[in-house]
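Pilot study result, target chain (208 residues):
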Amino acid sequence: MRLFRFFFLLCLLCLVMSSCSQQNTEESFETNATKTISSPISVRDQPQSPADSLEGDDSNYTVSLSDVGDVSIDQETFSEMIDLNEDGQCFDKKTGSFLEGRYRLLSPNGILLSSTAFRNGFYHGKKQEFHENGIVSVSSNYLFGKKNGKEQWNSEGGMKIYEANFRLGSLEGMETAWNEEGEVLSKYLFQAGKVTERFVENGVVVGK
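Predicted structure:
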């Protein structure tokens, strides 16, 4: 009987000690978890914007153009910051990186002058230039620096005055020019950049 009581008390003691140990472990885990969640992230670990990374620099850069994929900037600053290599690639003078993304150039009074897409420094995609009244003056398409696809010019009043098609930098297909009254001034057919047929020249029909 005494032996039974001894084993019973021993088991009871083990249960109590096990319960206390588990409680302490859970409290310790909760405390550590709370500390982990509430601990502030170091400023050093926070991602910096391109503008932040230039803080304290003595240049007139306000952004690093090579790091921004969609930006508007005044034309004068853009011209100061960007250069062109012999292959026709635009690059950031500060970082040496080629331009990527879309760039909108603004006049000193904030008027949109152009919107250009770049890839690896080359014009790539749609490029548009604008009249001061906001109407598109020239719309072109590029493929890694070469005109490719439709190009159209418009007057300040929105009239189409020129239309052509390009293939990898060379005129391909019909090229037509109009005056602002809508009269055809010239109309030529091109193949691989060379005129193969003339339909209208200096406003005069010369062929069909």
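One observation from the pilot: Residues 148-208 form one domain. A full batch analysis is planned for the follow-on phase.
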